[in-house]
Amino acid sequence: MNASGTPVVADAALVTASYAADFERCRLLCETVDRHVTGASHHYLLVEHRDVALFRQLESRRRTVIDERELLPSWLRDFPDPTSLFKRRIWLSLKAPPLRGWHVQQLRRIAIAERIEQPALVYVDSDVAFLRPFDCARFWRDDKVRLFRRDDALLRPGHENHHVWSRNAAAVLGLEAPEISSHDYISTLIAWRRSSVRDMLARIEQVSGRHWVEAVSARRRFSECMIYGRFVDEIAGGAGHFHGSEEFCRVHWTGTPLSDAQFEAFVAEMSPEQVAIGMQSFIGTDLGRIRKLVGA
Fold it and tell me: What is the DSSP letter of 283?
């Protein structure tokens, strides 16, 4: 029950922001979602305008591709980037500094909360593959949604980028102290409460007097997870959430492509609560090998 005594429906939407270079990895994700994931009524793929036709191949009764132009303000548009010999895109406007793809993927992940009705948003990257059954009901406890948080992680060395992201989150939310939170909210396969995202956007616009996309983008080094986590804990007082630090996805973040033996060891070392693996696409692990080794 919520505060008014109305039963809460523990439904969720899976949300994946992707792009053309990750298409085949996203296809594998979709296949493993369909095989292993329950508790989510729909899966949304958020892509830039020029990639919509490509990703339509992955649509189904429970999966929809959404053009970023349906989510983001019309004043933000992508163009070929001459500094990459036109191989990459850059997002330009008169209201924000130039943005790269990773910036805009974060903006899409936030903006989808204004478009859909599922009460929880479960974020999963396109280079993730599920290996075990997973019920998104694990993100619910009664009427509360699980907020991923590593307590005091930023007090340990090696989190310089996190400090910047946390500081910029405080600025966009209008938090004066602490300037930097000690907690880390960043992980793969996490959930947000849709109503809390909307409250967060209202807070950002109230503080800044600008559209939330403009306010968030003004500081190019931002993390959507850090903004959301600090909003929930420090402005909303944790309302509607409970904390969890276990990571449901085992991710190979950096380094070189894994050999078959290393990959098999990586999977074998998954902890009991982990149900998926993530092979960061920029590392270059061959997708065919991943398919073979995960049995897809």
Answer: G
